[in-house]
Design goal:
By secondary structure, this protein is mostly helical. It has a domain at 24-74 and 95-144: Four Helix Bundle (Hemerythrin (Met), subunit A). It has helices spanning 2-18, 26-49, 56-69, 92-95, 97-117, 125-146.
Length: 149
């Protein structure tokens, strides 16, 4: 009885591991970058919306980090869509590369603008609302066209 239970648990554990994305694959790398971008932008938005206390230094560091992160995921989109993995990218990413790259550049420009605004001391939360909204709009525009929900 114990051996059957142990064998069953082992099988469930192995099957659960099959759904994981290889963190070293292009899909795994871009997913990790997008998750880090999301966490960073949520913290910045949280500081402006009162969910987190506003901290000038943390905000400026977060804006710089987001700007750096925004330039990295695009290199992990191969020329042809991967057949394996659990990508949330639509086929249009590969079919409409010019538009996809345009939206990537718009995000990069928005994060650069936010980074610049976060370097003007003293930081005023009200002055940062528009640049943060621009970053959020750039993310949303790409998600609406190229992400599967």
């Amino acid at each position: 009885m114990k051996s059957k239970l142990l064998l069953g648990l082992l099988a469930v554990t192995l099957l659960a591991g099959c759904d994981r994305v290889d963190p070293n694959s292009p899909l795994g790398k871009r997913q990790a970058l997008f998750e880090e971008m999301l966490r960073t932008s949520e913290d910045l938005g949280g500081m402006l919306r009162g969910r987190l206390s506003f901290n000038e230094q943390r905000f400026a560091e977060g804006a710089a980090k987001l700007d750096e992160l925004s330039r990295q995921p695009w290199q992990h989109f191969p020329q042809v869509r991967e057949s394996d993995g659990d990508s949330q990218a639509r086929d249009e990413v590969w079919q409409r590369q010019e538009r996809f790259q345009q939206l990537a550049r718009e995000l990069e420009a928005a994060t650069a603008e936010l980074r610049g605004a976060a370097q003007v001391k003293p930081l005023k939360a009200r002055a940062l609302e528009a640049p943060v909204a621009k970053v959020e709009a750039a993310c949303k525009a790409c998600h609406e066209e190229f992400r599967i929900y």
